[in-house]
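Lab notebook: predicted structure, single chain.

Context: the supervisor wants predicted structures on file for every construct in the current expression panel, including those that have not yet been purified. This is the next one on the list. No modifications to the sequence; it matches the entry in the shared construct table.
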Amino acid sequence: MTMRSDRSRGTSNPVPARSAHGGQAVVLGASIAGLTAATVLSCHYDHVVVLDRDQLPERPGNRRETPQDRHAHALLASGRDALEILFSGFTEELVAQGALCGDAAANGRYWQAGGWRRTEPAGVPLVSTTRTALEYAIRRRVVALRGVEIRQQTTVTGLCGTATGITGVRLAGGDVVDAALVVDATGRRHRSDQWLSELGCELPRTAGATVDLMYATQLLRRRRGDVSDGIVGQIIASTPSIGRGGLMMAVDGDRWLVTLAGYHGAHPPADQAGFEAFARTLPQPAIADLLGRAEPVTAIARIRYLASKRRYFEQLRRPPASYLAIGDALCSFNPIYGQGISVAALEANALGRLLDRHGAATGAMVRDWYATVAKAIVGPAWELAAGADWALPATTGDRPRGMALRTWYARQVLLATHVDSDINALLIRVHHLMAPPSTLLRPVLRVLRAARRARRAASAPSGHHDIRGRCKEDVGSG
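Prediction complete. Output recorded below exactly as produced.
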């Protein structure tokens, strides 16, 4: 089945006009990474073919090939900005579909390092919606682009070409689709190592962290007064001593999305009683309180994620021309940190800029692209995710150097956010990929002083005014 462009929808090409270089580009996967890449490629190639194994829903709905779409997903501020570049007015479209917006600090609540972080506005936009609504909104825009074709229920079995350059893809049944560029957005279950090896291509070094994460999600009916007014989302993060956490998000359809997660065997159950009992083991009662009074509208869905994986294509001397891995096929982050969608949108914009610069997917362009995204996009996000994963003692894999010191300092930053709104705003900018992690090293003395104040406040007698008591009043304990 094929979805073709339909200009009658009235959706004009949202990307700044560029000179097309002709030919055909092929995108493997109609994921968010694949769809955003196709949007950029439509400005450079006469024809863009998106191949996907799935039957794509005609309205917001779950997909068989993306079981993670039932769970919580974050649209970081950097990702929102990247999508606005690709699709003008995209945030307003999400709001019209029922998404909620606010400030990441004022309308979000974060329990980390034994206390609530500050709640003064940080100037970082927060958009809360379901993955299915987000992907559907993107797909509607992409289908309306001139020259873009989405072929559903189509299985790719290999790449065509040589070790120096890819010329197309092979489909089940033997047909070949020629391409001047192949963008691999097949996700964390990609088969491209096998495909590249069959052509004699050098494979990239990989690194990862095994976390054995299980997360479980349920949608509940949202009513006024469920939590304090203005709260869009609330996160109770895991700690090294308690490898479990949870979050609640106000999403489209007047619903709450609740996800509970546990590492290294501390897995949330799939039955209602067990799910609620797991929530009661968290160090704050907000999520358990909501589960105790809100009406479920779906069954509990679970998914297991064993390990994060990064592929270092930028270290290859001669990666094959005309082939790019993007999204989770390039770097699969621990999904609990909500980086994947935003990283994919940022990568798509980087792809457009580098095609502008090079004019075609030559070997030089491919090397430039991998180096650029590694330094500016994937590297910073991986550093954040790896730091959090390696704070858990049971994590195994390729442990980065200096992790003990980095883990200690990260805790000082989190403690500082309990009492210092500027440090909290800075950390939110880093988490939203709007600033590199190194930014947090600049105010090191201020961080350490604030962390000491937070520790003193936490140990103060219960009759004293402390930050945890203040924040409990703010959120009304859920």
